[in-house]
Write a structure and sequence with these properties.
This protein has one domain (4-181): Dihydrofolate Reductase, subunit A. It contains five helices and eight strands. The mean pLDDT is 94. It has helices at residues 42-51, 62-71, 82-90, 115-124, 136-144; strands at 4-11, 56-61, 93-96, 108-110, 129-133, 150-156, 175-183, 189-197. The longest helix is centred in the first third of the chain and has 10 residues, at 42-51. Strand 7 (175-183) and strand 8 (189-197) form a beta hairpin. The chain is of the alpha/beta class.
Length: 208
């Protein structure tokens, strides 16, 4: 069974909204989009290249899909992002949408029926891992359904105070194991967590 990997740019207070620019997602009057841009460096670029170095298919919410579809097919040939653009343009893209007839980006497929059931079926098919990037609303549903196998979190040293967050109050209690961690010169933590099963609990004994 293939894994579902969620990759996100994350603030210290858990916000993932509009990291790359103010126009990505200004919903809810979010005015500080583009908060990852001052931290961009080769280490983060290498982290993303590593993520996409193995076979994968994209799993996207509709809003993120529209952002990607407007950008990646138009990346110039001489751009430093061209390698990832070629990957994204070529791989299958599974999209949570109520408008399946408007998926114009090549190799795009609408998920049918209940979201959790559709993704369980995708995972059971085997093949390349599924990678979700952005797609905040959908990711919260994936976490609530316990479908996330791995978290690839790039954690930035900023507190945003408001915005769409990675974890909602309905996230399924789960333990994750830290399998990789490093930091960039500007203090961005690059982490990889694997799903580790149920949350373990205990109780400290009182002294005396």
């Amino acid at each position: 069974m293939r894994k579902l990997i969620v990759a996100e740019h994350l603030s210290l207070d858990g916000v993932i909204q509009s990291p790359g620019g103010p126009k990505e997602d200004p919903g809810g009057d979010f005015r500080i989009g583009g908060w990852i841009v001052p931290y961009a460096d080769d280490a983060i670029g290498q982290e993303l290249q590593d993520l996409f170095s193995q076979s994968f298919e994209l799993l996207l919410g509709r809003h993120t899909y529209d952002i990607f579809a407007a950008y990646w097919p138009r990346v110039p040939v001489d751009s430093g992002s061209r390698a990832i653009a070629d990957l994204f343009n070529g791989v299958p893209k599974h999209v949570a949408t109520h408008r399946p007839d408007t998926l114009d980006w090549q190799n795009s497929h609408a998920l049918e029926g209940d979201l959790a059931d559709a993704i369980r079926a995708l995972k059971q098919q085997g093949g390349a891992n599924l990678v979700t990037w952005g797609s905040a609303d959908m990711v919260r549903q994936l976490l609530a359904a316990g479908l996330v196998d791995e978290l690839r979190l790039m954690i930035y040293p900023v507190v945003l105070g408001r915005g769409k967050r990675l974890f909602g109050s309905n996230a399924r209690p789960s333990a994750f194991t830290l399998v990789h961690s490093t930091s960039t010169p500007d203090g961005v933590l690059l982490t990889r967590y694997a799903h580790g099963g149920e949350v373990r609990t205990g109780e400290f004994e009182e002294a005396g």
